Amino acid sequence: MGDLVDSMLDLMRRLPPTHVEENVAALVGICPDYADDLLGSVDQPLKLRTDRSTGREYLACDYNRDGESYRSPWSNEYEPPLDDGTVPTPRLRQLEIKANEAFDTYREMYYEGGVSSVFLWDLDDGGFAGVVLLKKALVPTTPTEPSGSWDSIHVFEAAERGRQAHYKLTSTIMLQLVTRSNSDSPPDNGPFKKAAPEPVGSGSGARKEGEVSLSGSMTRQTEQDWPLQNQESHIANTGRMIEEMEIKMRNLLQEVYFGKTRDVVFDLRSIESLERARRQRELQKELVGFIKR
Amino acid sequence: MDASERIQAASKFLLQSPPGEINDVLNDVRNIISDDASLQEGVLPALQEYNLAQFIVADVPGSGHQSIVSDAAQLEGEEGEERFWDPRSRTSFRFDHLSLEASDSKPVEADNESEPFRAALESSTLTYLAAHFHDGVASVFSKTGSSTEFTIQIVANKYNPSNFWAGRWRSEYIVDLAGKKVAGKILVNVHYYEQGNVQLETKHTISFPLPPTISVSSPNTSNSKILALIEDEEGKFQTALNDVYHEMSEKTFKGLRRALPLTRQKLDWDKVMGYKLGAELSASNKGVFGGNGS
Q: Which residues form the signal peptide (chain B) (predicted)?
């Protein structure tokens, strides 16, 4: 029934990203047997939680979830507490602690705010896997200022091969931007004519209210080999890969969000009169023909 | 979930379909629900609601043009029969909400009182449509029982599945001659889905007063004036949208994540590790990496 999961993923690729959580919940309700497949393959916005023992914020997703509880990367504890919650082996936990420190530095350098979390887990074949999470949200200070949120989810697998390590990285970035506007554009009277009656005519007394929302996610994958000197090399290696990937994807997001979607709007409707443009083209053709003669 | 809840969930999915992708969504939903018999009946109301809200267009039988299937186009048919009205061809038709085909065309008698103004408004709207929309369809309806209220609807679609994008522009204006005002809305949806799922959604409502010179008795001058006002508003909307794009890109996007750190250089990961590693080395296990000559 891989077919069914494919259909669910195709559906999620089409429905509005702003409703991903409720749509995933609906799909889980329809096909409870496939809940794990679905929750493991559809990225959802990261949730902010606070570590009870350190007071520090961390990110929650399917990778640090056990039942209803989430593990904090800072204290290694589950909230709500679990007696038998899955935790990494002591050796991997040491690496996880260092990875969290390193990516916290990375976060500060690029995001200048926000929250990061890294979670590692052992794989059956002797290697390990991990997820690096980054989230930042901008809360508008005025009603018409845009709001925005950025969620990065980098999942990787590491396999050691002697003095080399092979990495598989899947990166998803979710980006949401919303602008609301509201204008009761009164006639342009200037400050001293407040009491002037509103003239009825073109462009005056118009009331407008609007919302522009750009939201979605993009996913990319890469596989690379890097030299391995010691355990810490894994952090620098995945660090470089993730940094490179985020730079590449940030460019891609910029192009798609602010280039491609805008082009489609202007392809639907042209501000300039198409008739005028057509006449101009014809005139140009005539001129070219005239010069050629 | 019981059967009716599943149909309800399926209907919700359909209503969220991006432009031009209702059949893809329907195929996915069919696979997921895997109960074609109950699905076919059950989702029909959702398909109808989607088509009316999204200004889906129909090829009007025998007319050579398309018209918009919407609430404003719905006629009160006999015995619950659903028919849609195309004032331009003065016909009505039946519409299949699954195949999107129009059939069973019948003549509709125009209302003598409102028709001259409606026809002039339609003519101005079609001129405006050709001037600004690449693949647009427009319909102009008069309100039953009123000779002073008209609805202009415009839709433009671009579907490009091979390049993974689709877009839809809808606008609607209720022209109220008695109240001397126009209430309108502009809705734009764009879907880009190459290795991702990015959607633009805009909702914009406008209302503006009509100049006093506009009246039913001067259909031609009044109508070109009304369309000039609409042209102005839609142009302003598009310019404002451009500004929003600029602000989101220059302020919000940059404020979320820098292109490079303040140093204008990528991170030196050995150094990032070095800080912590160095601190740890001096604290506990000297000699593991730094030990020489022991």
A: none
